Amino acid sequence: MIRINLMPRAEARRQAARQRDRQIATAIGVALLAIIFATEFYTRRSANHVQQLSDQYQADLAQLSQKHNAAIQLDRKRKELEAKLATIKVLERQRTGPVHVLDDLGAATPDTLWLTEMRETGGTATLLGRGLDNQTIAMFMRNLAASPYFANVDLVETKQVEEGPAKLKEFSIRTNVLYGGRPLPTPAPPVEAEGASAPGASPPPEAPAAAGTPAAQPASKQDAPAPPGMFGAPAAARQAAQVSDARNARQDEAAHEAAGEPRS
After folding, report:
1. CA nearest 157: which of 251, 257, 253, 256?
2. Could you tell me the maximum CA-CA distance found in the chain, to the nearest angstrom?
3. Tell me: the pLDDT tens digits for 162-174?
């Protein structure tokens, strides 16, 4: 069958252009829908991933919070145990401290000194008593200062009193009582003298003593220093004792001059 196009050429061109525009518009619409669907799919997928991360972080945060609370409880228990141990140490020190304090006090007291009263408040003790002379009181102070349970030994007052025919020195001493004690300094190791003979070597022969000349005594007995009492006297205690002796001597001189007695 033969078809004959009776339409003008211009109308045929316009119809072809409209058909082409419809095809282009359809393609653009399909492309836009594809882009929208792809964007929505990517957005939803990203949102799901972020939600999963958020849930995981929340779970980790809950675990960390539990561990933090457990650490706080452990730290509180540790502090409570440390406080209990400190209290036990204080009680132990207070239980055994007075025994050592009284033991050292008795050992530091010379035979010619008598304690009449002891008062202790807040770690500071006041000792009252009487001694034969100032040297006895000074020895007592040196012994107290050398004890690890007494510190800052200070002579407050001393005066002469008469008890029957005897003249005694009445004193008042203030000191700090350390119930826990303080560590004593470690003694220095002995230093060998120069020229000491080697181990196993025989000593040199001694020269015979001349007639009528007494034999020389061993160096250990001849040069041994006199023991300073039961405890060693530190420099601070010796200085306090010297000051006390000088003050007592001035008081004795003033008392003799006031009484008109000749000084001995």
Report:
1. 251
2. 178
3. 888 888 889 999 9
Domain boundaries along the sequence of the chain: 13-96, 109-182+232-264
- Amino acid letter at 177? V
Residue 143 pLDDT level (bands cut at 50, 70, 90): very high
pTM: 0.41
Indicate the SS3 state at residue 116. Answer: strand
Q: What is the pLDDT of residues 54-88, one digit of tens each?
A: 999 999 999 999 999 999 999 999 999 999 898 88
Angle at the Cα of 150 from the Cα atoms of 145 and 155, rounded to 5 degrees: 60
Query: So what's the architecture of 109-182+232-264 in CATH?
Result: 2-Layer Sandwich (3.30)
Residues 120, 177: contact at Cβ < 8 Å?
Answer: yes
Residues 6+ apart with CB under 8 A from 155: 137, 141, 171, 172, 173, 240, 243, 244
Question: d(Cα 49, Cα 43) in Å, to the nearest integer?
Answer: 10
| Separation between Cα atoms, residue 42 and residue 37, nearest integer Å | 9
Using alpha carbons, select from 62, 241, 39, 225 the residue that is nearest to residue 137: 241
CB atoms within 10 A of CB 238: 15
| Amino acid at residue number 117 | E
- Give yes or no for a contact between 150 and 144, defined as CB atoms under 8 angstroms apart: yes
Q: Which residue type is seen at 198?
A: A
